[in-house]
Amino acid sequence: MPGIEYFLNAVTPFALLIAVAGIVAGVVIGALPGLTATMAVAVLVPFTFGMDPGIALIALGAIYMGAIYGGAYSAILLNTPGTPSAICTTFDGYPMAKRGDGDLALTLACLASVIGGLIGGVFLLMLAPPLATVALRFGPVEYFWLALFGLTLISSLSEGSVVKGAIGGCIGLLLSTIGVAEVGGDVRFTGGSTALLGGIDVVSALIGLYCVPVLIELVATPTPHMQLTGRVASFRLVEAWRHVRAAWFNLTRSSVIGTIVGILPGAGGSIASLVSYSEARRASKHPENFGKGEPDGIIASESANNATVGGGFIPTLVLGIPGTPPDAVILGALMVQGIRVGPQLFTEQADTVYTFIYGLIIASILMLPIGLLVGRYAFQSLIRVPKALLAPSVAFMTVLGSYAVHNNTHEALQMVVIGGFAWVMGRFGFTASPIVLGLILGSIAEGGFVQGHMIGTAKGSVLMEFFGRPISMVIIVMLVLGLLYPLLSRRAKKKERVNEQ
Amino acid sequence: MSNSDSPSRDVRGIFASCLIILAGGLIIQASSSYGMLGSVFPRTIGVTMIVLAVVYIVMVSLGKGASVAPLDGSRWRRIAIFCVLLAWTLLLDVLGFLTASLAGYCAALLIANFDHWTPRRAITYCGVGAAVVVGLFLLFGQVLKVPFPTGMFI
Predict the structure, then answer these.
(1) Would you say the pTM of this structure is higher than 0.90?
(2) In a domain, B4, yes or no
């Protein structure tokens, strides 16, 4: 177990203040339908540039966690998930709000989120260091296969067409090749522009990919961003605690599922909550109550989506491969801070990484009072903000954020152009997440491939270099399983349907 | 996608796939001018894009495509907000960050507002907008020491 000194770093008054501010900001943005946790992190990233890396990570982790929980507010009270990961919370949260138990549903969501976040954080603390030791044995070839594995998962798990997801991944990979090549030094796809010599800035691109399409849709309709139908009188902590205690197995199972799904590159809170919800329903003695206001449904969904936060940080910090889309933004922010993620992070910058992990666990605990008190009042104030003011404020934050990454106006322009491109691609059925993953993993995949090729050529067998190493073989097997997953799951569903008939 | 498109006939998807095949071809052509180490990865991506796009066209012709639901709402507002963002970022160096942002904010406000404009609403919204822009500009400029571009104004 890492030392107490890191824990003490995470409980300094400033670190606690940053964690509180991060949770509040995250809850507020996450509560707004259409504004995802990824967007919350992307918009608020520039505020962390001037901070110490450990504190910046705590801020980003707290924002992420707060946003995931904030999504439950609109899910329960408006029947509109604030973030995609709160989709399953609407199934039982809204029926509870309609029957006058909105405050109980919100309290349950808060408790489940806190416990889910804590379990995810503890897994991060326990699993990340041993995994980092294993990852130290990774060579360029293993990183190449791992990057491909990440890409196959996003394709397999993306909504809509798998082929479109894979094409999106290729577009992201292509974007990552723009600029001067790391190996060989070729100037690629810049169109003669000197502004593109350094390549596409990851953070600006992510802000564009995730925020601009949302903004374009926000101004398109007069429908208010919020219309409250439920009632929020107070919170019912004792009653909610009784429910949570009775559902301890569901809570633990959902949190573990959330952590594992978070670890898988590309899979996020929405998949975690869907899997946990269906598991909770399948295992329940009263599955017929699910969808009609069953507290167990909220507990499963909210604990799982918050557990993905800790789980998602495991591959992000250990391998530099984002576990969830917000992790991709955080990864970009770490690059700006000059932190090289990877197994060496746990030895070379142990103070930063462990301060952050303890900070994340503390942020989970702080979410209980903040989620119950500030979240509720912030949400009620937010309802009164007109959409006409919200949209330009978000637009300003995106411009400011993308500029402040490197104090470069070209990157703000890049953000808008890439965002417009993402919106157009969205109209053709190509979602942003595969593009993002391609963009992030592109340099890892290319570097690994080219270096592996060179080593293989020097050894006399390129094939053996790529296919003959034990760790590579394990990753290749996982990659094949990831590719076959949609086919297998479709077959299983078909079989289930036939059995039911 | 038009409303008449059936879920299995993703016409837009076919169109996008054709563009991707074209883009893949251009990438392969452009890669030929790079060295071996610099060209192998983009060329592989180009080939993969072409193969995947052809696979998608075949899938759609077999009735297995995934189409996109039609959009509700105003088309001109969507185009306008994008143009505003584009002009906003292009004018950052010309007008100065604060001036371009105040102008961009006002333009975005006009696009996003669906309610009837009254003097009170105009003053309130402009006041809040100015507070948001100037407040964050000062926070980043003075506290976080971010150097902003100064063009004709600030």
Answers:
(1) no
(2) no
- Identify the pLDDT of residue B129: 95
B128 inside domain = yes
User: Phi and psi at residue A187, in whole multiples of 5°?
Assistant: -95, 115
Are B95 and B119 members of one domain? yes
Quickly tell me which residue has 């696979």 as its tokens.
B55
Average pLDDT (A387-407) is: 87
Domain annotation covers residue B33:
yes
Q: Determine contact, residues A309/A22, Cβ cutoff 8 Å.
A: no
Who among A174, A400, A428 is closest to B27 (CB)? A174
What was the ipTM of the complex prediction?
0.94
In a domain? residue B5: no
Specify the amino acid at residue A185.
G
Do B56 and B84 have their domain in common?
no
Smallest CA-to-CA distance from B52 within A449, A434, A234 is with: A434
pLDDT tens-digit map of A73-115: 877 876 666 676 787 888 888 888 878 788 888 899 999 999 9
Q: Are residues B86 and B111 in the same domain?
A: yes
- Chain B, window 40-79: residues with a beta carbon less than 8 angstroms from a chain A beta carbon: 40-42, 45-46, 48-49, 52-53, 55-56, 59, 65-68, 71-75, 77-78
B12 interaction partners in chain A (CB closer than 8 Å): 427-429
Q: Is A427 on the interface with B (CB under 8 A)?
A: yes
Contact between chains at A161 and B132 (C-beta distance less than 8 A): no
Say if residue B23 is in the same domain as residue B53: yes
Q: Rounded to a whole number, what is the distance in Å from the CA of A70 to chain B's nearest CA?
A: 22
Q: HSE (CB half, 13 Å, CA atoms) of A168?
A: 34
Q: What is the 3-state secondary structure (H, E, C) of A393-457?
A: HHHHHHHHHHHHCCCCHHHHHHHHHHHHHHHHHHHCCCCHHHHHHHHHHHHHHHHHHHHHHHHHH
Residues B97 and B125 in one domain: yes
Residues B81 and B57 in one domain: no
Number of separate domains in chain B: 2
| Residues with Cβ within 8 Å of residue A370, at least 6 apart in sequence | A20, A23, A24, A27, A66
What span, in angstroms and rounded, lies between the C-alpha atoms of B68 and B53? 17
Range of the domain at B35: 11-61
Q: How far is A165 from chain B (nearest CA, A)?
A: 10
pLDDT in tens, A416-457: 999 999 999 999 988 887 888 788 788 888 988 888 888 998
Which residues does chain A have within 8 Å of residue B106's beta carbon, measured at their own beta carbons?
Answer: 392
CA atoms in the 13 A half-sphere facing the CB of A91? 25
- Say yes or no: B44 and B104 in one domain: no
* B25 in contact with A, Cβ within 8 Å: no
| Low pLDDT (below 50) residues in chain B | 1-5, 7
- Check CB contact under 8 Å for B41 and A177: yes
